[in-house]
Design a protein that fits this description.
Number of strands: 4
Strand content: 5-15%
Helix content: 55-70%
Radius of gyration: 47 Å
CATH architecture of the largest domain: 2-Layer Sandwich
Shape: rod-shaped
Number of helices: 8
CATH class of the largest domain: Alpha Beta
Structural class: alpha+beta
CATH topology of the largest domain: Alpha-Beta Plaits
Mean pLDDT: 88
Strand order of the largest sheet: 2-3-1-4
Bound molecules: zinc ion
Number of domains: 2
Low-confidence stretches: none
Largest sheet: 4 strands, antiparallel
Order of helices and strands: HHHEHEHHEHEH
């Protein structure tokens, strides 16, 4: 490498940046025209610069994408939380109504002590006309008293004096149907003979019904 090449190569950075005085600039340009080696070095420098620029650009792009991703994932997790909450609310509501529809569809029919077999059949047949799948459970006066004793086993004051001979409770049917049919059944059998009272929970609010069953 001759002396001029050395000088020119030292000046190449300044030449590239455009910071050389006019005389130095002219020297470099003249030399580059005739010296292949220095031209090659200069073109390598330009390539390097382009590559550095490219790298910086790519890094900026990556940074930007990272930021966007972060924002998106924050948005996504928020959406997932909202979706999960909505899902739970919907499922809870469906659950409550299904539970209410089935469980609140029970009708208790308290029977008069002097009810006849014919009247009992009449009640049953009327109900079966409304819901042929209705299930009947019959509790006699004794069953009702035993149930009470089971529930309030220790409460002697409440139960004292009650016996099979002195039983103030009524025999009853529990009819298992659904909420809609329970209402129809009540309406249809109200006028029949032998019934003391008809009760059911088919008119309660589904939420109150369900929560009272599970929480209380
Ligand atoms: Zn040279």
């Amino acid at each position: 490498m001759n002396k001029e090449c050395e000088i020119v190569q030292d000046l190449l950075f300044g030449y590239q940046d455009g910071t050389l005085h006019a005389a130095s600039k002219e020297l470099v340009e003249k030399h580059l025209k005739k010296c292949e080696e220095c031209r090659r070095i200069f073109s390598e420098m330009k390539k390097d610069e382009i590559e550095v620029d490219k790298k910086e650009e790519q890094e900026q792009e990556i940074d930007y994408l990272k930021k966007v991703n972060k924002k998106m994932s924050r948005k996504n997790s928020l959406l997932m939380v909202i979706g999960t909450i909505l899902g739970i609310i919907i499922l809870l509501n469906v659950g409550i109504f299904v539970y209410y529809y089935n469980e609140a569809g029970k009708v208790q029919i308290y029977l008069n002590d002097d009810i006849t077999q014919e009247q009992m059949d009449d009640i049953k047949n009327t109900i079966l006309k409304i819901d042929e799948n209705a299930k009947f459970e019959y509790y006699s006066k004794e069953d009702a008293l035993n149930k009470l004793k089971k529930t309030f086993g220790d409460n002697k004051d409440l139960l004292s004096g009650y016996s099979e001979d002195n039983n103030p409770l009524n025999a009853y049917y529990v009819v298992d149907t659904n909420v809609e049919k329970a209402k129809d059944i009540k309406n249809m059998i109200t006028s029949l003979q032998g019934i003391k009272k008809i009760t059911g929970l088919y008119d309660t609010n589904p939420y109150i019904f369900t929560f009272s069953k599970f929480i209380m």
